[in-house]
Amino acid sequence: MTDKAGGTGAEGASAPTGPQRAASTARTAVVWEALRALLTGLGDTSDSPLEIVDVGGGTGGAAVPLAELGHSVTVVDPSPDSLAALERRAAEAGVRVRALQGETRDLADLLPAGHAHAVLVHNVLEYVDDPAAALADAVAVTRPGGAVSLLAANAVAGALHRALSGHVGDAQRLLADPEGRWGAGDPMPRRFTAERLVELVLEAGLIGPEVRGVRVFADLLPGRVFEGDPQARSRLVELEKTAAVHPALSGIATQLHILARRP
Ligand SMILES: C[S@@+](CC[C@H](N)C(=O)[O-])C[C@H]1O[C@@H](n2cnc3c(N)ncnc32)[C@H](O)[C@@H]1O
């Protein structure tokens, strides 16, 4: 099994190259490690595949590797282009992923209630009209005892990164804004604090939220760290795994990953 699930969605990293690729590997490793443990715990003794729904799963960055593990994966996404790319990606990998066009609000029409052992909502709550309603829709298709995996942009990191790039006023505005945005030019529609995400998770009826920070150091390191050092990336991965659950450091991660169970 390789460390390749986890999807996309880090701020400002659309086509990773060089140092960004190292950061991308670090993000992937932290999310994947948590997901792998979760899925192992959700499996029953018969070793039958799990039903996994990736809401807003886009082009299949998480869905295809999960299907490669033998799970039965459904992606629900409103973008026909993303779903077409997902189908190409799945075909190239030699797996089948069910692609359904729709939004979070369509989940109840597309899938039976309590269908999935695990529901991924990765980098989606930033874009929906109503995050609480979207999460409730995701929980409704999760079976009792199943889990929801939530990944979202961290407002604290947004402010930190904005200040470190010299935009101190933007950082101040972001921290004061309920949507976690620094202004009209901010490409991210919404960011969350860890407290707000946990609140949303509990309000949606989920229990036992575990919070991890994803990309604590990866987006802060200068590119020269990775130049001419083949070991730098693997050292960063190990550092990120430690920082992900560090009580202080996880709070400044670019993204927050929450796993929680449906009772
Ligand atoms: C930043 S991408 C994340 C894709 C993938 N989950 C990942 O982590 O790589 C956001 C995705 O959410 C989808 N999306 C936007 N609004 C949505 C909605 N209301 N319901 C479900 N998905 C939505 C978009 O089409 C897009 O594929």
From TrEMBL:
UniProt record, GO biological process: methylation
Show the InterPro entries listed in the entry.
Methyltransf_25, SAM-dependent_MTases_sf
From the UniProt annotation, give the residues forming the signal peptide.
none
ATP-binding among the record's keywords? no
A GO MF annotation of the entry reads: methyltransferase activity
Q: Could you tell me the keywords of this UniProt record? A: Methyltransferase, Transferase
Q: Which residues form the Methyltransferase domain?
A: 52-146
* Gly residues: compositionally biased ranges: 1-10
Tell me the segments the record calls region Disordered: 1-24
Q: Which domain of life is it from?
A: Bacteria
Q: Quote the PANTHER family the UniProt record gives.
A: METHYLTRANSFERASE
Its name, as the record gives it, is: Methyltransferase domain-containing protein
- Biological source species: Nocardiopsis mangrovi
State the organism's lineage: Bacteria, Bacillati, Actinomycetota, Actinomycetes, Streptosporangiales
